Amino acid sequence: MEFPAALFPSYFGAGPPQEEGGPAPVAGWGEHGQVLEGGPGRRQVQPAFVPRRGATGERWEAADAAAVPLLLPRAGCWIPSPGPQDILYRSDLCRKLRVGKSGATLDFARQLGHFFVDHPEDAFGSLGRLLHKNFYLGNSKLQRPARSSTIRMTALVEDIDRLEARRGCPRQHLASRLRWFSHLCRDWLFEVPLEVLADCLHEELMQQWSNLLFDDSLTGGALAWLPPEDGGTPVGCLVHPGGQAMNHLYFQDVVLEELPRTRGSPVQFELSGRIQQVAAARVDGQDFVGVRSDYHCGVWRVLGKRGAAPTPLQVIHTDVPASCLTVSPHLPGELSVCTQSGTVYLWSIETGLQQLRHDPQTMFFRDHSPWRWSDFTAHPRVLSCADRTGLQCLDARAPKRCHFDLFKVGEEAGCQQGERVVLPMYLGRAHPSQYLVTTQFSVYVLDERLPLVPVLKWAHMMKAPPLFVHLMPGKPGRSHKVLLGASRTQELLLLQYRDSFWGVSSGGSQSACQLAGTPQKLHSIAGCLPHLPTQLPHHHHLLQQRLTAPAAGLAATLQEDGPHKSMLIFQLSEAGDVFCQRLTHKAAQPPTSPSRDEATTAPGSSPLFKAPATSPQGLAAALRYRRWLRVLSRVCKEPPRHTWPPSLSQRRLFTRRDLEGPAGPSSLQRQMRQRLRQTMEEGGRIQHWEPLALQPPPLPQTLEPAGGLDSLSARLTAAWAGDWEQWWDERTSFSVAQRQRALRERRRRQKRAQGRRSLSASFTSSLTYQSELSELSDTGPSLFSPGRPPILSQEGSPPAGSPPVCSPVTPAASDEALLSSQSLRCRGIPKERRKTLRDYLSVWAEGPPEPPEPLASQASQLCIPSSQSQLSSASQPRRKRPRMGF
Amino acid sequence: SSNEHKLNFKKSKEACLSYIQDALLQKQWKRAAEFLTCYVESLEKDYSREHIGPSEMIWRIGTEILWHHSQSSMKEFNCFMEQMKTLGVKRYLKVCLEHVFHLLCNGQTDEAYQNLSLAESWRFGEQTAIQDKEMKLVQAYRGLLDYYSWSKQKNILLERGEDGFSDLAVEQEMHGYFRKAAVNLKEIIKIPGVWDIFVKCYVDLLEFYGDHNEARQVLNEYAYNSKFPANPNAHVYLYQFLKRQRESKKSLISALKILHDIVPSHELMIDFNTMLQKSKKRKKCRLGLEVIFAALDYAGWKENAKAWSCLARQVKQIVISEKHIDWIKQEWNSRKDWWPAFHFSRYSAKRNWQENKSLSYEKALVAGILLGKGCKYFKYISHQGCKAQLKRFRMLKKFVNRHNPVYLRISG
């Protein structure tokens, strides 16, 4: 490729960047930058000038109003990575103290507490076993011989409980007993010395927090597109990670049609770590796919012919997390690997690893980031290596001696202060000696033949740094397209640039690089939310969470079908979803008056999915969406935790003495228990516990709907629970006889309730209370309507979607009896076990714990009518509390 | 309270800006323009201390919209630019320059020239370093336009000279343009930077008036001053100048040698190689081999038939003369582990044969000598060539078979 005959004028300075700055929201607009004489010859009367920026580019328009899912959600719900709310300390007190101070407070204590509770064996294992005999958890006084070697922990535990109950209260102060105990044993109680553990935890927390601010492990993106062979069938292969831990690698064939669709089931590999990056390059008609996880890198080969299975070739293991893996576009089976320790390797399948550089320090000035990157250049033996401060090129044959600086964050490239390299990329497919460097503020195009001076620079104005770049080379004379993608904000930007603007016809001379057309924002995954049919609030929340998951990769392809040119863009999210969108090329038109698309794509205009019949493709997209939503709601059935009712442990309502009681049940208790049992058998209810209240218990009028909620509220509650369809089915199929019986029953109740209307007022104040009451009294199975919302049930019934388990409630009295340590002793349970048992039981009394696996939803999962989802496990997806990864 | 009011105002300003940004990124120029008219209000209460203030934002956004808006005209654009110039003193020169660029791109050279002259005469207190640079650019572009006027007059004069009569007024005018252009162009090219067009124009002026020493000095400075970036064009211009001056081979070669050292993949390396091959000196022939091998290392040269024929010719010469086979051996040593996969794979043989037969011929020759007759590339091409009954390929096969021992010496 020839060097441009003349470059755009620019100043060249040296040294650190002068320009102060920061993110500038509009810095990329309204500038031509420089102009250059662009006419074919000097003989012309009027020299024609071309601008560096602002030339006309190709017109690409989105075919749909939003990106469309390509794959159906896989079984196994996505576990969102920890958010700020999991890591940061949230307290009003703390917020008040922190007002005006920047910087976040990590909630260190909570995470340490989580560790102790979740991994007691690792935290206290050996001393716990040693002290087993010396800690007494019972309530009774210790006997004389035992007292010398045993301490009673009950009071301590109570103190802790009390502390827990007052969590967040500004007046909380430590009980002296606790302080005394912690002073006494903090040096020896822990399996891992507390300081060491705390250091590790703190480090991990800091790491997680900095990852939240900017996660560079995803750099490069974990999505690759292996294009179809020239002239072959339009079937490409999408390589992407999946699974709950993103540790499955899928090779999925995709047919390029109006709306691309998957073909067959994917080839799947299970890897031992989360896949951070998937890189691919085609050499000699074969695709080489490099896959990077933190400590392992692997390479696969896919033969050009579709249908041939990908072959894993080699895996390497690194001691320090790898931060980069790129595949050589020149030589088959060559890759470059960087680790966070500052080592760069050339990895050849045949000859193994060759270390090119090892330098924990950054190249041009000091920067704390251990991130390193490396890519290939126009010379197959010369590799670039980058850190946050710039890029250097090294010759693999003599890496110590032969190197030159390609890019420096400094005045040379006109950088801003604080600017850092985010992702460099070799643009070999477009131009053999060009390079792209993105920073958080700008994109630069560099030419290896003119190092340090960018041949193109543009402020991209993205809100998050562009971690993903995809290049689509244009044919000679046409513009090259570059897609920039950000992770957290899912931004997607299409740029066009040209490296020859004189056209091939007029001599074919290479000319300076220029940006063509304006940058264009493409649909993000989350952008489809407003177009989706209205969802129930909690479904909407789930959906929003899923769709706004940070982007994890980007791939695209150009497709030419005669005069029709289109661009397909695939975007991967951290939840494992792959969405695609199509852009169509519009032949050069004079800029028209407000075009149709301007009107329809404006926010607030009618969503595509409401009127899908307007175009056949819109219909297909809408169908695809509907299917995706259906599978998603099936796969992630569990309702979010926060909709569960607030629960109260009744243990805290009573003092120990209350719970103790006499050795045997009193006559009153016996009487009560008998009555309870009797009522349960009858399916009746007990309103008053007076022993002689034998008259039929008064019934508050508002409880009446328990027998059958009025149709509106039943429908609403069913809809709220997401079982509206089921409710409808049942309603329509309800036999007439049943309905009549229900009606009769209802009328009878109404009659009975006539006289007690005045009482009802006291029960209407709280819905929860009312429902609790109704549950404790209405035990007859006939009184449960099938679509009864699980939110109101209390006894650990499974969540939405499966019919509630109508087990009789454990009578409160027997519960109490069980809890009392004396009764436990009576049953011959050893005292050290009693605490465990009591805790266990109290958990049951407190509220629904982890729900039992509902069989119904399992069954429904097994019959997902999907072509590509390979069910790895049918286990019930459970939304886990995001927690530090120990 | 007023503080709250400020906050609210700031918030709505930001919201408005994000709407505009959104519209711009989706090419909804009309919508953006509507929002911009609201955003103009932000000028009134400009409390911001950000480095891009609202007035700059309005300039940038407004310009972008006017570039693309279907109903905008050049007149409106000029009007807007004039307003923007008065909006911020610090940005005056920058806005002027951008205005001029737009005029130039639209072919309005005269208006651009007027604007440049106006900008040049602008004075406002002490200039910052950036303003100083911008002023230099303004002057340089004016010099460039003067140069174009000069060259127009020159062409008129030349045409008339052919017809036999001269025009003193035109000549005077031409010299006037020369002086104006030369002064301004000379200034900017002293400052480190990439000044390709300015240097070219200035050298053209100097050459026309016969000031070759000054031209040579300018070009030498542009190419060899270490404060300037390593611009290959600087060396190219020097080389072309030397060629025009009919300088000795030696100085041409030394100019290209430096270019080879900084950009081994430059397209002039073919000329360089041919020049060196013709030379009688052993050292230069050796350098020629190095140059062509180095050029073919680069991905951009992979399918360059000219370069391959240069290499093939030289290798053939060496093999026939049986002298200096060690040169080939030395060059091959650092390449033998990757050239076969890079250049001589079966896949590329197939492709080269399909796309460019003469390229495949040259490559096959090189492959046959470097890798012996058993090499995949050579085997495939010679087989295909013989099948197609092409004489040249049969000769090639014979030649390689005859010189197969050379391969053993190279690889041994």
From TrEMBL, chain A:
Origin: domain of life: Eukaryota
Single Gene Ontology MF annotation: RNA polymerase I core promoter sequence-specific DNA binding
Disordered, as annotated region: 586-613, 770-821, 844-886
Biased composition, class Low complexity, residue ranges: 860-876
Start-end of Basic residues biased regions: 877-886
GO cellular component terms given for this protein: fibrillar center
Protein name: TAF1C polymerase
Organism: Pomatorhinus ruficollis
UniProtKB/TrEMBL annotation, chain B:
Pfam families for this protein: TAF1_subA (PF14929)
Source organism, top-level taxon: Eukaryota
InterPro entries: SL1/TIF-IB_Component (IPR052669), TAF1A (IPR039495)
GO BP: any one term: transcription by RNA polymerase I
One GO CC annotation: RNA polymerase I transcription regulator complex
PANTHER family: TATA BOX-BINDING PROTEIN ASSOCIATED FACTOR RNA POLYMERASE I SUBUNIT A, TATA BOX-BINDING PROTEIN-ASSOCIATED FACTOR RNA POLYMERASE I SUBUNIT A
Record's protein name: TAF1A polymerase
Annotated gene: Taf1a
